[in-house]
Specification:
- The termini are far apart.
- The chain has a 3-stranded parallel β-sheet, covered by helices on one side.
- The longest helix has 19 residues.
- The chain has 7 helices and 3 strands.
- The protein is mainly α and 202 residues long.
- 37% of the residues lie in helices and 6% in strands.
């Protein structure tokens, strides 16, 4: 019963978002491989997905750099809120395209700068936030009125932190975090850094 009810509710939500004007003017995305649309394609890293069989179910069968066979969850959400097309990766976003948002997510990245370094280069949270600052500077000359007024209408997604465990805390051969901190202490470090970066974004 509950499964059916949840499915029905999701169907109603989907239908309400598919047609008409966008519910939000823009969408900014921060995260790791679950949301990366191809920001890692030009990086020296093992965390890449711009080759087959990735993208086999993506429109045109193109491996864009998404760590999936098709759309990511943020791609689906983009469609549900009525934004036309997909949100461009920061790597290629330019011109007026940034008015509808930018995706800064990077596979292998974490909240901490060292997380995922065993894979190679990646754009960790602080770097993603810095890239957002670059976008804001460009938007300031594109929108009417204060840029913050425009940004306050936008949707934001931040989905990051798993690599701080998978590619850091749980890899004592490469990182000293597990040796230096117990689980509670390490979690506190993550939350503190996460909070600081969110304050910068806001």
């Amino acid at each position: 019963m509950w499964k059916f009810l949840c499915s029905y509710v999701l169907l109603l939500i989907s239908c309400s978002f598919v047609h008409g004007d966008p519910k939000v003017p823009c969408y900014f995305i921060f995260g790791d491989s679950l949301a990366d649309p191809g920001n890692n394609n030009d990086l020296v890293t093992n965390a890449t997905a711009n080759f087959a069989p990735y993208g086999v179910d993506f429109p045109g069968g193109v491996a864009t750099g998404r760590f999936t066979n098709g759309l990511t969850s943020v791609d689906v959400l983009t469609k549900l809120v009525g934004i036309k097309g997909l949100i461009s990766p920061f790597r290629t976003a330019s011109g007026t395209d940034i008015l509808k948002g930018v995706n800064y997510a990077s596979g292998g990245s974490g909240i901490l700068s060292e997380s995922g370094s065993n894979l190679g280069d990646r754009i960790w949270l602080a770097r993603q936030v810095k890239n957002h600052g670059t976008t804001i500077s460009k938007l300031a000359s594109m929108v009417e009125g204060p840029v913050n007024k425009y940004l306050n209408k936008c949707l934001y997604t931040v989905n990051i932190g798993s690599n701080d465990y998978i590619n850091n805390y749980f890899m004592p051969r490469f990182y000293s975090s597990k040796k230096n901190f117990n689980p509670e202490q390490f979690a506190t470090i993550l939350v503190t850094e996460y909070e600081q970066q969110l304050k910068v974004v806001s």
